[in-house]
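Below is a filled-in request sheet from our internal design queue. Each sheet records the structural input a requester submitted and the sequence that came back. We keep these sheets so that new team members can see what a complete request looks like end to end.

REQUESTER: design group, bay 2
PRIORITY: normal
MODE: inverse folding
CHAIN LENGTH: 126
BACKBONE (tokenized):
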């Protein structure tokens, strides 16, 4: 039985695309810099209407409530960082062809509260 390239590598096409996006982001920061806000807005503009509306609203909320966070892209997704470290990102439903978008938090967000806490939330509307 023949195996596909995805089965051999263990990564789906969507995961491979996300890794390529991340590589582009890394290269962009080393050479000729694109404005991070511009890069984030471009990614939002590329999204399907439902994901675009959520990403835009999340962007508005974050920039209004935490203006100290820097906009960026993270694996091709809208994200926000502090001191160069990603704290929060929006994973559009369309990126991995799932039912809902996800608002996720990385370790530097320090959401620790007790013995267990959420690090991501499903988002269908705001």
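RETURNED SEQUENCE:
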């Amino acid at each position: 039985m023949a195996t596909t390239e995805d089965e051999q590598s263990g990564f789906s096409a969507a995961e491979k695309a996300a890794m390529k996006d991340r590589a582009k982001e890394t290269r962009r920061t080393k050479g000729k810099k694109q404005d991070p806000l511009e890069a984030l807005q471009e990614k939002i503009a590329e999204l399907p209407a439902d994901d675009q509306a959520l990403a835009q609203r999340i962007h508005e909320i974050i920039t209004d409530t935490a203006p100290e966070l820097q906009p960026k892209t993270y694996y091709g997704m809208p994200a926000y960082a502090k001191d160069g470290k990603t704290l929060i990102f929006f994973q559009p439903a369309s990126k991995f062809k799932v039912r809902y978008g996800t608002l996720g938090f990385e370790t530097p967000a320090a959401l620790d509260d007790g013995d267990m806490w959420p690090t991501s939330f499903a988002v269908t509307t705001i």
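SHEET NOTES:
- The helical segments are 5-9, 13-30, 36-46, 49-65, 93-96.
- The mean pLDDT is 89.
FILED BY: M.R.
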